[in-house]
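Team,

Forwarding the record for the chain on the shared tracking sheet. I've put the sequence and predicted structure together so nobody has to dig through attachments.
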Amino acid sequence: MFTLAEKTTARSSFLHSWEARHKLAGITALIFSFSFVRDLRLLPLILAASALVYYLTALPPAYLFARLRLPSVFLLVPAMVLPFGSGQTVLARVGPLALKLEGSLALLLIAAKFISILTLAVSLFATTPLAGLAGAMRSLGVPSLLVEMVLFTYRYIFQLAGDLKRTGTAATLRGFKGRSLLSLKTLAYMVGTLLVRSYDQSERVFQAMTLRGYGRVAVAVSATAPCRRDRLALAGALALAASVILVQVLVL
């Protein structure tokens, strides 16, 4: 049975077929270049570029919106503070609050960069299996320790989620409601027990891996040979990233 991530990475599109090392390097370059944007005139460009990248995944817009919904909660604080607390030019007044131009533009800049960068990240992870992404990171010179931390983190997020669900089900069957402040103590015990159990499990896993040769044998990294299309796509992504930075620094 496929997980949601496996279903998306098993599709067929241009971005799915883009060789993993070239795709990782190209999209990472775009993400870093978009993060440097400070001028509002560049926002249509980065939004259009991120939309084009997502279009090449052949995934439905609903998939992207579902992935953006939870991270977008972090925009609530600047959305409540910047338009009313930053700047001098007043656009409108709502009771004692004054909507200011400078703060509104700053919020627009933050929101556009946030959406563009997250769209690129979703496009990368939705079209590349984690094993392929880890292999690409190794091939590009990322330290093995960091790659292994990414793999273990991904693996144990689901392990912890499953343990937490089972613990919650067991507590509910024993009469736990979790609807009052008194239940916070019980919740703290549950979380603490889960963390201690996870730590003990990680120790056992590490000892088992060490007995099987972990850390002593270098694992060869297999990589698919890139084709001309992969190189052209990488060149285009790097050219766009460099253009965004150069325009930001030299022209605007």
